[in-house]
Amino acid sequence: MDLLDRVLFLFKQKDWREVLELNKVECEVVTRKLLWVWPSESNLKLIKNTVNEFGLNGVISIGCGCGLFEWLLQEYSGLPVIGYEVNKEWWMSKYCNPHFIELNFPSLPPTEDILDPSYALLFCYFNNGPAFRDYVNCYNGDLIFIIGPGEGAGRHTDPEPFKPEFGGSKWTLCELQEVRDTKDFIAAYVREK
To answer: What are phi and psi for residue 117, nearest 5 degrees?
Structure first.
């Protein structure tokens, strides 16, 4: 059984713990087709605890892809996770990976009505700085997670977890954690009041 078949089988069984364990035996090239970062339970706990600490209701993931990371977070935490993608034609085609959460396709540029301020925003391996700033400018909430490579990882995102360009608003790093031992990081930012 290949990786995708195993993940789909475990997904149907709602066995998120075994999905987390799959990364220990799979090569990076194969896993990146499903997830840019394969979190540990500790990584999911950091996100859950930070969202709860700020009294938020859930997470909105911008550029969620097939939603496997988001499904793992939702299953682990019990938090609702909303996934947004922009390329509806691709994500509804027969060529894309199966979806692990419901995908939403908002119009662009983003508007305040799609970004519930009682939810945290999540950008995982996002790679469009201007679009990132458009989302941040429309977001009236107080917590943003950025997941991506640290320095020397040999990969690139925009925004980077430790050097995000937020535009006009002010944000402060409040939590960070490496994703397993991958040189990828979860960085949580809180809006300065």
So the answer is: -70, -10
Cβ-contact 138, 167 below 8 angstroms: no
CATH topology of domain 36-191: Rossmann fold (3.40.50)
User: Do the beta carbons of residue 37 and residue 147 sit within 8 Å?
Assistant: yes
Contact 121, 60 (CB under 8 A): yes
What is the reported pTM?
0.94
Say how far apart CA 126 and CA 87 lie, in whole Å: 14
Beta bridge partners of 141: none
Segments of the chain scoring below 50 in pLDDT: 29
Cross-strand bridge partners of residue 62: 84, 123
Nearest partner of 98 among 74, 66, 61, judged by Cα: 66
| Structural domain boundaries in the chain | 36-191
Q: Provide the Cα torsion 145, 98, 107, 168; round to 10°.
A: 10
